[in-house]
Design goal:
1 helix, 6% strand, disordered C terminus
Length: 64
């Protein structure tokens, strides 16, 4: 996603998966990954709802 006025990245993006289990797997696999010196935070979006605070989220375990 980019800022309309400046064209710079807002630092977030959205992906849509048909299979919920794929979404959970992708979130677990990518969250915490370091890219270009920054650590990714990846979580499921809630359709039209406010995201819970990180302290309130259940932690996704990484696949074995």
């Amino acid at each position: 996603m980019t800022d309309r006025e400046t064209g710079t990245s807002k630092g977030y993006a959205f992906c849509v998966y048909q299979d919920v289990s794929v979404t959970d797997s992708v979130c677990a696999s990518l969250s915490g990954l370091k890219v270009s010196g920054k650590i990714l935070t990846v979580r499921r979006a809630n359709d039209g709802q406010t995201q819970p605070n990180p302290e309130q989220e259940s932690v996704l375990s990484r696949p074995a």
